[in-house]
Specification:
7 helices; single chain; 20% strand; alpha+beta; globular
Length: 226
């Protein structure tokens, strides 16, 4: 490949946009520690990079999604935990469908056992409100997610598992990314007419908010009101 080709290939890609995006693949997953401009650790986990491919298999856009670390003092921590678990499970199950053994399900049971938590909803509700137990469960869960999916990531491997990828705005219209709750991806082997991924009325309303925010921002080079 020419130098120009290499440079263009490594250039920053456009971001995957709003909607149900087809022919996407899993590029990478990691739990690498990241810091902000003030050298403070960013409290996020399970960085997952998805790429959109064109008809020729070229990577034309990317988006990295992640989840925020949970806080045991939050009133809705159990609902937040369930939401994260649902979405992580959605991704793992899509790329690694359960065969004779569901490794993700088995791993979750083992995580609870190692944390000394009974595998019941009631026990889990109590456990996530305990800082040390929540840390034990989530740190193992996030590590297992990455361990399982790393063998499925990378463009060459990922092309064998093309997926649909839902991207939407938050309820304030400020941030575009994976929805906070519900399924995020779906195998392209599912016929589009049978797809469970949907852009809801709420998603559309949030996009309107985002469009209004964008239209209210001054255009670059436009005269200031000052």
């Amino acid at each position: 490949m020419s130098l120009l080709g290499k440079l263009m290939g490594s250039a920053r890609k456009s971001e995957i946009g709003f909607g149900i995006n087809e022919n996407c693949v899993l590029l990478s997953v990691n739990n690498d520690e990241r810091k902000n401009a003030n050298n403070e650790i960013i409290k996020r986990n399970c960085y997952t990079k998805i790429a959109a491919l064109d008809d020729n298999g070229a990577n034309v856009a990317e988006r990295e999604i992640f989840w925020f670390n949970l806080d045991n003092t939050q009133e809705k921590v159990f609902e937040q935990f369930k939401g994260q678990l649902e979405q992580l499970s959605n991704i793992v199950d899509t790329f690694c469908p359960a065969g004779e053994k569901d490794i993700w399900d088995m791993a979750f049971d083992k995580i609870l056992e190692n944390a000394g938590v009974e595998a019941t909803k009631e026990a889990l509700q109590v456990a996530v409100k305990d800082r040390s137990k929540l840390e034990a469960i989530t740190s193992s869960l996030y590590a297992t997610y990455v361990e399982i999916l790393q063998v499925e990531s990378g463009k060459d491997l990922a092309e064998k598992h093309p997926v649909r990828f839902k991207v939407a705005y938050d309820n304030k219209g400020n941030n575009l990314g994976a929805p906070k709750y519900g399924s995020i991806i779906e195998s392209m082997t599912v016929p589009f007419k049978d797809s469970t991924l949907r852009i809801t009325k709420s998603d559309e309303d949030n996009k309107v908010k985002a469009d209004n925010i964008a239209s209210s921002k001054p255009t670059a080079g436009a005269p200031s009101n000052i």
